[in-house]
């Protein structure tokens, strides 16, 4: 398989991963929105303008239970998720500076759901682009490692071949990384790097390089 076909294969994999994450985010937001609607008082009106949230017929912070263990807390200057002690995310970080809207029990679903979906779409897409850029840099570096690994294993190969091998290892290492994140919910351990290097060693030991 030529390098161009390998690149197309990897791009297809990451686009599929993006679609999967977007779909997961959509259903997670629907799930969370249902809980928030159930907790929302009938007479509470939230008004947002100039980067601040104000409450009529009620007070802030407003806390809604999402699922069994998570809380969504709406404050004057931001919103937090998880527990009331978590640091707030400022509204200015994800809402346009000119945003002005009000929310009540009747308009909650439409306003809340549309804003959360747009925020999720923008966040996941930006994260995907950053991940793709980071993986590209890592791939160029790891191709050099594979090339040097081949030298020590007496299986020398040109950089182009090392790059092509790295392209094929990339999706497998990413799947291992995603599974680790889902199971352990931790980014401390560099699972992608460890998985990639272990796969490279195993594959290099198994392949035969034509001289």
How is this structure best described in words?
- The two termini are 18 Å apart.
- 11% of the residues are buried.
- The mean pLDDT is 83.
- α2 (108-152) crosses α3 (159-184), α2 (108-152) packs parallel to α4 (191-206) and α3 (159-184) crosses α4 (191-206).
- Strands 3-4-5-6 form a 4-stranded antiparallel beta sheet, with helices on one face. It has a 3-stranded antiparallel beta sheet with strand order 2-1-7.
- β4 (70-74) and β5 (78-82) form a beta hairpin.
- With 211 residues, it is α+β, with helices and mostly antiparallel strands.
- The chain has 2 domains: 20-122, no CATH class; 129-206, no CATH class.
- It is elongated, with a radius of gyration of 23 Å.
- The protein contains 4 helices and 7 strands.
- The longest helix has 45 residues, at 108-152.
